[in-house]
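Residues pack. One example:


***
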Amino acid sequence: MGCCTGRCTLIFLCALQLLAALERQVFDFLGYQWAPILANFLHIIIVILGLFGTIQYRPRYIVVYAIWTAVWVTWNIFIICFYLEVGGLSKESELLTFNISRHQSWWSENGPGCVKKEASMSGIKGLDSHSYISVIGCALEYRYIEVMHSSFQILIALVGFVYACYVVSVFTEEEDSFDFIGGFDPFPLYHVNEKPTNLLFKQTYLFVSPTGLSGMEEANK
């Protein structure tokens, strides 16, 4: 298969998905988003499996990757609904942190143009610590950044699914055609050791000589 085929395109898509997943994993770690961290980790493993299957011509691995892309699209749709507060979901909840911390997305405090506004804690004397109040000046609200991340993941996952199905069909056709000509038969029928016709005729001539000489004498003549 050439470099401009679906196989090479799928390799490129898997590499792109790995880069996007690693970038997302870093910011989810910074925001202590444990549910996305686990999902990203599993996603990275499956994409590597699909990349290996594409390079090594293993259609079963690509099938696993294709099934996972459907799951991954569903997960990212849920993330979009979570941050857009669709269906009773709230972006302020601790669902993505498994209710073990009150952290939010890293982009909520470090988005483009965001400035943290802090003030001294009231009611506590002799304490120089500060309490976080709010974030102002954000050029883009953090939930829209998360939605864009998930939308990009959905886009490349859908394209990857289409190319995965195409590559699997191509690999399957190649295997079927190769098996049809005896490629997987260790002892094909056309490899049967048959003696040539002229050799059989020569042997018959040696043992059945019309002159009455022995077969060896007739051969020497």
Q: What stands out?
A: Confidence is low (pLDDT under 50) at residues 124-129, 180-196, 204-209, 213-219. Helices lie at 6-30, 34-55, 59-83, 107-110, 142-180, 197-207, 215-220.
